[in-house]
Amino acid sequence: MIGNLTADTWFRAVVQSGVCATTNSESVKITVIPTSVGGSVNSAQTIYAGSSPVDISVSNQIGSVVKWQWSSDATFSNPVDIASTSTTLTSAQMGALTADTWFRAVVQSGVCAATNSASIKITINATPTIFNVAGGGSSCVGNSGGNGPTVLITLSGSQVGTSYQLQRDGNNVGAPQAGTGNILNFTGQRVAGTYTVIATSSASCVAPMNGSASIIVGTTPTAFSVTGGGSICRGSTAGLAIGLSSSQVGVNYQLKRSNIDLGSPIDGTSQAINFGNQTTAGTYTVLAIEASSGCSRVMTGSKTIVVTTCTGREGVALEANEEFTNEGQLWAVIAPNPITSEKLTVQVKGVMNQTIQWQLVNTQGVVLNQHQFKAQTQTHSQEINVAHLSTGSYLLQLQTQQRKITLKVIKIN
Fold first, then answer.
1. How far apart are the C-alpha atoms of 98 and 127, rounded to whole Å?
2. DSSP helix/strand/coil, 322
3. Quick check: helix, strand or coil at residue 1?
4. Which of 46, 54, 104, 148 sits most deeply, having the most CB atoms within 10 A of its CB?
5. Secondary element (H or E) of residue 141
6. How many angstroms separate the CA atoms of 194 and 169, rounded?
7. Which tens digit of pLDDT belongs to each residue from 376-400?
8. In DSSP terms, which residues pair with 249 in a beta bridge?
9. Cis ω for the linkage preceding 158 (within 30 of 0)
10. Structural domains in the chain?
11. What is the DSSP string of 30-69?
């Protein structure tokens, strides 16, 4: 009996004819093929979703690799073949992974049955959730120098277990902030640059957050005074000039009436600015904006243009509607006018039981006196003390909830 062999073995027969000397037959070799041994694969990895693992290799195997396999579970209940006979499975062959995946080699020695290597697991950690970077703006230094105010950079959300690093122009700014599950605020920023945020998970998965925010450092414009204004007759086409006492190069100046932009901004020239003659009643202001940074400042003061009739006794409304009574008369008049005493008398019609607010202003729009009264009758007369007024022209503005009118007042000695 030959029995079980564990190594290559040669066999021959010893032959003898009668009393002749013995002789050997030709030998035959029995080649023993070792049993297939799968070996082990190096090594388990943890990566973030959407990335590829590094190359893996099988070692200590007996036999040749006939293929590789991957599976979505450790028992390889539904293995998928990878057509590679190399002892190394490359990153490109494994590809980008989005879930935990197991890999193994299939090894066969000669004609022996194939066997599997030990498997390894590639663990996937989710990439940090993407949130939006926001905030930024202008940090405006005062005319006397020093640091401008800080600007806030925000992140629209965060995850617990993930850290968030603020960067300016690609360089880290301060220490990372730990995610809280809420919005993150990166306070105290005032250096010019482009700000971004990098998130790093507890498994070292890194992801840039969406978008960026910029900080621009500029200088608050110098304060100059608004000039001009006054009173004009209704229907006048000449208007009154509105201007600014001076200006700065590199700063744009926007004229506004009742906080609404009028025309286009005018570039500063280091000289006074004239916005041209204005014919519409209202309060005029000027906003200065540094062109390079957007730093802004409301210029000092405001000027008012009052539009009135120039007939002495009768006035006109700042707003055309509700100027007249149902009988086609002005709902408020001053009589007598001009006035020579210490009091003027204003008569109102059609506003019984209504409260009338009044202001007495000069032709530059400065309020000299103001109060209110209630009309007790259908035609109500109200005296107003003007003893403090010097000779000249003034405007009396009256207003109910539905009506508004401006009357010209002339005082003489």
1. 10
2. coil
3. coil
4. 104
5. strand 137-141
6. 5
7. 999 999 999 988 888 888 899 999 9
8. none
9. no
10. 133-219 (2.60.40.10), 226-307 (2.60.40), 311-411 (2.60.40.3080)
11. EPPPPPPB--EEE--EEEETTB-PPPEEEES-BSEEEEEE
Cβ atoms of 320 and 295 closer than 8 Å: no
Determine if residue 156 is left, alpha or beta; phi over 0 gives left, psi from -120 to 50 gives alpha, anything else beta: alpha
List the structure tokens of 26: 């030709």
Residue position matching structure tokens 């949130």: 131
What's the whole-model pTM score? 0.47
Rg (CA), the chain: 47
As a whole number of angstroms, the distance between CA 203 and CA 181 comes to: 18
* 92 backbone dihedrals φ, ψ, rounded to 5°: -65, -35
Q: What are phi and psi of 193, to 5 degrees?
A: 155, 180
Query: Does residue 232 contact residue 364 with C-beta atoms inside 8 Å?
Result: no
Q: What is the pLDDT of residues 60-106, one digit of tens each?
A: 999 999 999 999 999 999 999 999 999 999 999 999 998 999 999 99
